[in-house]
Design brief:
The protein is mainly alpha-helical. Among the domains are: 142 residues, Serine Threonine Protein Phosphatase 5, Tetratricopeptide repeat, CATH 1.25.40; 73 residues, Arc Repressor Mutant, subunit A (Orthogonal Bundle). It has 21 helices and three strands. It has a three-stranded antiparallel sheet with strand order 1-3-2. Helix 4 runs parallel beside helix 6. It is elongated, with a radius of gyration of 40 Å. The protein starts with 25 loop residues before the first helix and ends in an 18-residue tail after the last helix. Its main location: cytoplasm. Keywords: Cytoplasm, Nucleus, Signalosome. It is found in: Cytoplasm; Nucleus.
Length: 488
């Protein structure tokens, strides 16, 4: 999530703002500009020329400071990390007296941004950590709190990139404390640094899947009103929030967070906006929404962007239930799965697509083979069996799987309805018989009627009906005895 296009949240200073400050000996100035002309074609010679500038000054001054800056940048780009650290240590001795506080702060910030953007391997990262440590030692002594906060934030970002969560945890706590007043409340003047500390910690919990800590911190960060953070910081916080909601299968909240994240990244000019837009499209499919994610004013300009063409085609196939087109797009754009978050969640979308395809495909059949479905959908037989089993368990398909022969028998809908009707009719008859036999006065005994000797309706009924109605007497088998002729 931390790309290198805009890491300085105080909006970049011009790289060569120092060239506006003119003055000093003409020979020193000429040597400096001569070295600048050599940078592109002969960087090694340019380094020597730049390092010769400070020696021409009788005391530390502006041109020596600028010469060291240029030499350090070239040394870092060429991989001369030890020399770069050595000369950076020398450069820091200029900030106390040779140049003004504001000028030195801007220059050091630009230097650290340059180092951060051009660090491409482990050795470069180790060199960068030395730069941060040297800077902290120097500016802590001069009590420059703003640069101290900025440098510590960069150091925390480095540890996040290295997944050094132990040191990162300690550093963000230190940053939070530095952004508070003595009474423990947030200091509004340091709100930007406080929000970035939240963003770093939220990213850490997102990467370590600690959703419990992430949720509390996420809600706390959104409730901060004492600062107007850089839009990229809010983009990071919202992106992590969207991923958290996705893990909880809260698609609606995830969609909202990814949209806000995209909007903030877009405002900041961050390249991460493209990746988050892909997440937004993915969430739309998981929601089963028919709304096109590119209908909004913010996303519409990216509809035909070649970087998200595959995701655009996927959502189109998904909304048309075109499983063949969907599978083809996935096969032709396997680079989509290079993002672990997309790879993790696209399986659910694919399963939904295949499930709908199976239901549509088997609708006309009462019996089908699993390999027939596998061939039509271009997936394996075990995958088909898994989908059919899910449909049966979810009662979206009524049938039984015969694993021995690889077939599925679908229960006849007509037979099933007839069976249910017979069961309902039998229940109704039993209920009616119960009412007639137990509640009708014609079947009650004389005692129950409170009376006397008049013949009841029950007594006038044939014995055969009464015995069958009452059921077998106690101690009998329930079989009816044959009638015998009198005298026999």
């Amino acid at each position: 999530m931390q790309d290198s296009d805009d890491e300085n949240y105080d909006f970049e200073y011009e790289e060569d703002e120092d060239d506006a400050e003119q003055g000093g000996d003409v020979d020193v100035e000429n040597k400096y500009y001569n070295a600048k002309q050599m940078k592109g074609d002969a960087p090694e010679e340019a380094i020597e020329e730049f390092l010769g500038v400070p020696a021409l000054e009788p005391e530390k001054g502006n041109w020596g400071f600028k010469g060291l800056k240029q030499a350090i940048k070239l040394e870092f780009k060429l991989g001369h990390y030890n020399k770069a650290v050595e000369h950076y240590t020398e450069l820091l001795t200029y900030v106390k007296s040779a140049v003004t506080r504001n000028y030195s702060e801007k220059s050091i910030n630009n230097m650290l941004d340059f180092i951060e953007k051009n660090a491409e391997d482990e050795a470069a990262n180790e060199c960068m950590e030395h730069f941060y440590s040297k800077t902290l030692e120097s500016f802590q002594a001069t009590n420059n709190e703003r640069l101290w906060l900025a440098t510590n934030t960069k150091l925390a970002r480095l540890w996040l990139a290295q997944k050094d969560y132990t040191r990162l945890t300690g550093k963000v706590r230190e940053l939070h404390k530095a952004c508070q007043r003595e009474d423990g409340t947030d200091d509004p003047s340091k709100g930007t640094y406080s929000m970035e500390a939240y963003a770093l910690e939220i990213q850490m919990y997102s990467e370590t899947r600690n959703n419990k800590r992430l949720k509390g911190l996420y809600e706390r960060a959104l409730s901060v009103r004492s600062a107007v953070p850089h839009p990229k910081i809010m983009g990071i916080i919202r992106e992590c929030g969207g991923k958290m909601h996705m893990s909880e299968e809260n698609w609606k909240s995830a969609q909202s967070d990814f949209f806000e994240s995209f909007r903030n990244y877009d405002e900041a000019g961050s390249l991460q906006r493209i990746q988050v837009l892909k997440y937004l499209v993915l969430t739309t499919m998981l929601m089963g929404s028919d709304i096109n994610p590119f209908d909004s004013q913010e996303t519409k300009p990216y509809k035909n962007d070649p970087r998200i063409a595959a995701m655009t085609a996927l959502v189109d196939a998904y909304q048309r239930d075109d499983i063949n087109q969907y599978e083809t797009i996935l096969q032709q754009n396997k680079d989509l799965l290079a993002d672990p978050f997309i790879a993790e969640n696209i399986d659910e979308v694919t399963r939904n697509m295949r499930t709908k395809a199976v239901v549509k495909l088997v609708a006309p059949y009462t019996r089908f083979r699993l390999d027939f479905i596998a061939k039509r959908l271009h997936i394996s037989v075990p995958e088909v069996q898994d989908i059919v089993g899910f449909l049966i368990m979810d009662k979206k398909l009524r049938g039984k799987i015969n694993q021995d022969v690889g077939t599925v028998e679908i229960e006849s809908r007509a037979d099933l309805d007839r069976m249910h009707a017979v069961a309902d009719w039998t229940t109704a008859i039993r209920s009616l018989a119960s009412v007639v036999l137990n509640e009708s006065e014609g079947f009650k005994s004389d005692d129950a009627l409170g009376g006397g000797g008049g013949p009841s309706f029950a007594s006038s009924m044939p014995e055969s009906f009464m015995s069958s109605a009452r059921g077998p007497a106690a101690g009998t088998s329930g079989k009816r005895k044959p009638n015998r002729a009198p005298g026999k």
